[in-house]
């Protein structure tokens, strides 16, 4: 080997040897602790694996997190990566406790909705840190929780923590399509219930609401709306476009959709939403009078109408149905023989699903518009307001966000918590992630998470789970 070659090899070896020191100094320069740097690395790895439900690879993500756990000393028997179909992956990992109490289950989904590069200001499948935010598809929904749970499980292991109960982490696939093919949470419940059986579960669904940078509420999701789709179909004999008729499939469908858009389902508050509005009236002064007016024994219709103009409040007040897709006709010079629309409904828990379809048909007021369900509604009972969970949340929240109200919420979206609830595992949506109440980018362009909120939330979940798991 030449002298020049030896010098090159020596330089490479020196670079490798000093890489940890350089990383540490870089972390210090950024003001990050070693633990925060570790958390960021796991987060970045997850975000940068494309796990788009239809075309991505959740198996790769599950295997990557499994590898992280094994490298941290978890035995093979406590780290399970399942692939129920090609490119579909679920992970179940366990930190053993004393067994004095039934396990706690920590759930996060690793699939994400699509993101087109041309729509985003940054690459959606690269973790980009700028302007105080982490950008990336799934950065909040739901790879923040997935990375936090894996990071913290490894942290517990390194500390030699021995909880009173086993701590189980389950990362699941296909949540974004409500596990329509039964490859995610339903598959785990059906095939490996013993691995995920727990006293209760923590899941996505409730976060820390920020207003002007200040935490105003810390939410705990105890129930969720029931999601179901309907297809609206109008058929006609068609004909040549040069001979138009008033009886037009597209017009009939459009007129029916306009009637549906003008309809509001009646207000129907349940235990969770009534407490939610009661608490919200204390922090949202601009709507406080209207909120109090709708909570009265005789709700004020005018106040209800004003509150309903706020999409977030409207979704808590009632069942909603909205047109999301539209298609019609087959040629520019032909009258339409077929026009279809898809309507997505989010039904309040406890309201009969068949009653919603009957209401849609009544509001459309046209028997030529056929209404057909496009899926099966998954009903699930609300989880009870568990005193241990709510008490721990309230105590710890005061340390992190002293002025935030603890608010039970009903999720207007849908999660796989419904499958867990139906399986007898009470589930609570609670992330500890702070986000601006007026800037929800989940499923949208430039999804992002405040950098400060990421590290704060990860530490919050670390401490909350220890409070709930007990032990030393």
Which characteristics define this entry?
Alpha-Beta Plaits, 22% strand, alpha/beta, single chain, 2 domains, Aminopeptidase, globular, 6-stranded mixed β-sheet, 14 helices, 472 residues, 4-stranded mixed β-sheet
Show the helix and strand layout.
Elements: H1 3-29, H2 34-47, H3 58-71, E1 79-85, E2 88-95, E3 104-109, E4 128-130, E5 133-135, H4 143-159, E6 167-172, H5 185-196, E7 200-203, E8 208-211, E9 214-224, E10 226-235, E11 239-240, H6 249-261, H7 271-283, H8 288-295, H9 301-308, H10 311-317, E12 320-328, E13 334-335, E14 338-347, H11 353-364, E15 370-373, H12 387-400, E16 405-411, H13 417-422, E17 427-429, E18 434-436, E19 448-450, H14 451-469
Parallel strand pairs: 3-6, 3-7, 7-17, 8-18, 9-16
Antiparallel strand pairs: 1-2, 2-6, 4-5, 5-19, 8-9, 10-14, 10-15, 11-13, 12-14
Structural notes for this entry:
- 39% of the residues lie in helices and 22% in strands.
- The N and C termini lie far apart (56 Å).
- It is globular, with a radius of gyration of 25 Å.
- It folds into two domains: 30-205 and 415-469, Aminopeptidase, CATH 3.40.630; 225-373, Alpha-Beta Plaits, CATH 3.30.70.360.
- It has helices spanning 3-29, 34-47, 58-71, 143-159, 185-196, 249-261, 271-283, 288-295, 301-308, 311-317, 353-364, 387-400, 417-422, 451-469; strands at residues 79-85, 88-95, 104-109, 128-130, 133-135, 167-172, 200-203, 208-211, 214-224, 226-235, 239-240, 320-328, 334-335, 338-347, 370-373, 405-411, 427-429, 434-436, 448-450.
- It has 472 residues and is α/β, with parallel strands linked by helices.
- The strands form five sheets. The protein has a six-stranded mixed sheet with strand order 1-2-6-3-7-17, with helices on both faces. Strands 16-9-8-18 form a four-stranded mixed sheet. Strands 12-14-10-15 form a four-stranded antiparallel sheet, with helices on one face.
- It is built from 14 helices and 19 strands.
- Strand 8 (208-211) and strand 9 (214-224) form a beta hairpin.
């Amino acid at each position: 080997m030449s002298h020049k070659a030896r010098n090159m090899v020596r330089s490479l070896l020196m670079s490798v040897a000093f890489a940890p020191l350089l990383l540490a100094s870089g972390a210090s320069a950024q003001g990050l602790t070693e633990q925060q740097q570790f958390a960021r690395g796991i987060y970045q790895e997850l975000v940068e694996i494309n796990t788009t439900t239809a075309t991505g690879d959740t198996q790769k993500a599950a295997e990557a997190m499994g590898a992280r756990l094994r490298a941290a000393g978890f035995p093979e028997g406590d780290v399970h990566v399942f692939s129920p179909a090609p490119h579909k992956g679920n992970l179940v990992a366990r930190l053993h406790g004393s067994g004095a109490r039934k396990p706690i289950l920590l759930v996060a989904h690793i699939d994400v909705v699509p993101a087109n590069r041309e729509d985003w200001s940054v690459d959606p499948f690269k973790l980009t840190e700028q302007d105080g935010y982490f950008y990336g598809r799934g950065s909040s929904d739901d790879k923040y929780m997935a990375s936090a749970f894996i990071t913290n499980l490894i942290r517990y292991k390194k500390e030699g923590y021995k909880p009173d109960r086993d701590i189980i982490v389950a990362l699941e696939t296909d949540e974004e399509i409500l596990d329509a093919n039964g490859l995610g949470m339903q598959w785990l419940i059906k095939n490996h219930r013993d691995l995920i059986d727990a006293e209760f579960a923590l899941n996505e669904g409730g976060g820390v609401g920020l207003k002007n940078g200040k935490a105003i509420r810390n939410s705990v999701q105890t129930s969720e709306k029931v999601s179901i789709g309907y297809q609206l179909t109008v058929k006609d004999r068609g004909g040549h476009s040069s001979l138009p008729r008033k009886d037009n499939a597209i017009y009939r469908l459009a007129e029916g959709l306009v009637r549906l858009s003008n309809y509001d389902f009646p207000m129907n508050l349940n235990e969770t939403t009534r407490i939610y509005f009661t608490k919200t009236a204390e922090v949202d002064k601009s709507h406080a009078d209207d909120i109090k007016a709708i909570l009265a024994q005789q709700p004020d219709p005018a106040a209800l109408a004003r509150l309903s103009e706020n999409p977030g409040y409207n979704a808590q007040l009632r069942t909603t149905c909205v047109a999301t897709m539209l298609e019609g006709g087959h040629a520019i010079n032909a009258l339409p023989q077929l026009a279809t629309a898809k309507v997505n409904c989010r039904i309040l828990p406890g309201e009969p699903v068949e009653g919603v379809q009957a209401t849609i048909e009544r509001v459309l007021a046209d028997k030529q518009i056929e209404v057909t369900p496009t899926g099966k509604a998954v009903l699930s009972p609300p989880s009870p307001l568990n005193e241990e969970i709510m008490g721990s949340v309230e105590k710890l929240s005061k340390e992190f966000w002293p002025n935030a109200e603890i608010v039970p919420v009903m999720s207007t979206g849908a999660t796989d918590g419904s499958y867990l609830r139906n399986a007898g595992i009470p589930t609570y949506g609670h992330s500890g992630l702070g986000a601006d109440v007026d800037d929800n980018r989940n499923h949208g362009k430039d999804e992002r998470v405040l950098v400060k909120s990421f590290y704060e939330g990860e530490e919050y979940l670390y401490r909350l789970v220890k409070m709930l798991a007990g032990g030393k």
